[in-house]
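Hi R.,

Here's the chain you asked about this morning:
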Amino acid sequence: MAEKNAKTAKAAAKPAKKKTNVFKRVWNYLRECKGELKKITWTSPRTTTRNFFVVLAVIVVAGLFIFAVDRGLYALLGLVMNTAST
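And the predicted structure, written out as tokens:
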């Protein structure tokens, strides 16, 4: 127990590291962000446009597929319900 108290007393006796100015920290952060953005390999506008249209086409095809399945199941349910009520 005495060792634990001695360790905490030593830790408390050490001077705390002084934080730098908040504006300096923000400036350093923004500078580092700018450096990271320079490392990114950006795609060309042509590639981005092509990928956009591919995604759009997949969304349309998937939407039409889901619509067709929904209508088919609804029609099947209608047949089952008419058969049961007759």
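Residues 18-85 form one domain.

Let me know if you need anything else.
M.
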